[in-house]
């Protein structure tokens, strides 16, 4: 079992932390069975599962639904659930209540919030409620309208200083790890050396203490856009299309289903039915 303590232990040992998203039971079971350290039920499900253009529409109810499904398929991985847009922005009370809902109803082991300096108080309050918090800074997708798109962060000196200040604020607040998304690799290296808690990179280079990726991107099962950092290890969309094509052909030709896919009936019973 990978626990909240394993994050820091991995950093100390110099062992890279592996994390992938999953949004449902079947995929979570495969990911969990593949010796992944941690599973993220990301609000990226708004784009990948629900088909929205951003993560902003995702609700607490959506997150709870997917977190519960993922947890049923997980035995070993540490499961983190994203707090969705507007679930922690209004007040600290809201932040604690919604983090608590993800734990209690979504059954996850920890929660992730986007932001640094400006949400450090909320992070502290959630941790005081005994809920482990993962930070997320750099390209925070819930800020897409402020950034003017999904843009790499930290290329100007003020932005880079802000990302460093955010990392330090989250470490001070007690976060157990921080996702660094879409920042220059050398900035991520600097931050990873500066703070004691592990950094989990996505589009932040190889010097982070761990890596996270959207599962559908890795599998080649999402094609609306492909961020530069999303390595495709295969093309599952193409394979699925091939399988479905075979199914369609076989049904049309009558070669599926075969005898072995069909249930038998007792011959005496059949005779009775025929004679009626
Ligand atoms: N499938 C999927 N993968 C992700 O990594 C992901 C999501 N969805 N949804 C939530 C956010 C959105 N993310 C994104 C989306 C687009 C880019 C992108 O197109 N980036 C450009 C650079 C743009 C610029 O800096 O101007 C790139 O080429 O990578 C990056 C991250 C990352 N997250
Ligand atoms: C991209 C990762 C870090 C995320 O927040 C998500 O999948 O929602
Ligand atoms: Mg997210």
TrEMBL record:
The active site is at residue 181. Mg(2+) binds at residues 43, 82, 114. It is found in: Cytoplasm. Pathway: Cofactor biosynthesis; (R)-pantothenate biosynthesis; (R)-pantoate from 3-methyl-2-oxobutanoate: step 1/2. It holds the Pfam family Pantoate_transf. It catalyses: (6R)-5,10-methylene-5,6,7,8-tetrahydrofolate + 3-methyl-2-oxobutanoate + H2O = 2-dehydropantoate + (6S)-5,6,7,8-tetrahydrofolate. GO terms for biological process: methylation; pantothenate biosynthetic process. Keywords: Cytoplasm, Magnesium, Metal-binding, Methyltransferase, Pantothenate biosynthesis, Transferase. One of its GO terms (cellular component) is cytoplasm. Binds 1 Mg(2+) ion per subunit. It comes from the Bacteria. Its EC number is 2.1.2.11. It is an enzyme of class 2 (transferase). Its cofactor is Mg(2+). Homodecamer; pentamer of dimers. Catalyzes the reversible reaction in which hydroxymethyl group from 5,10-methylenetetrahydrofolate is transferred onto alpha-ketoisovalerate to form ketopantoate. PANTHER family: 3-METHYL-2-OXOBUTANOATE HYDROXYMETHYLTRANSFERASE (PTHR20881:SF0). Belongs to the PanB family. This is 3-methyl-2-oxobutanoate hydroxymethyltransferase.
């Amino acid at each position: 079992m990978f626990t909240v303590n394993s994050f820091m232990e991995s950093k100390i040992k110099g062992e890279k932390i592996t994390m992938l998203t999953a949004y449902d039971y079947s995929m979570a079971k495969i990911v969990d069975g593949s010796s992944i350290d941690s599973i993220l039920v990301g609000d990226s499900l708004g784009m990948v599962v629900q088909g929205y253009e951003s993560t902003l529409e995702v609700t607490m109810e959506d997150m709870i639904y997917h977190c519960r499904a993922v947890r049923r398929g997980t035995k070993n991985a540490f499961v983190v659930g994203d707090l969705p847009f507007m679930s922690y922005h209004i007040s600290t009370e809201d932040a604690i209540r919604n983090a608590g809902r993800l734990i209690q109803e979504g059954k996850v082991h920890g929660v992730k919030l986007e932001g640094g300096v400006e949400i450090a108080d909320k992070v502290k309050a959630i941790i005081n409620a005994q809920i482990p918090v993962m930070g997320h800074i750099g390209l925070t997708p819930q800020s897409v309208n402020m950034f003017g798109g999904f843009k790499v962060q930290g290329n100007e000196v003020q932005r880079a200083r802000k990302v460093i200040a955010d990392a330090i604020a989250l470490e001070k607040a007690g976060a157990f790890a921080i996702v660094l998304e879409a920042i220059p690799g050398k900035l991520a290296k600097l931050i990873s050396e500066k703070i004691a808690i592990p950094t989990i990179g996505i589009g932040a280079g190889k010097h982070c203490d761990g890596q996270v990726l959207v599962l559908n991107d890795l599998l080649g099962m999402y094609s609306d856009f492909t961020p530069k950092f999303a390595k495709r290890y295969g093309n599952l969309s193409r394979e699925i299309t091939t399988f479905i094509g075979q199914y369609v052909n076989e049904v049309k030709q009558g070669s599926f289903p075969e005898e072995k896919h069909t249930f038998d009936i007792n011959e005496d019973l059949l005779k009775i039915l025929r004679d009626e």
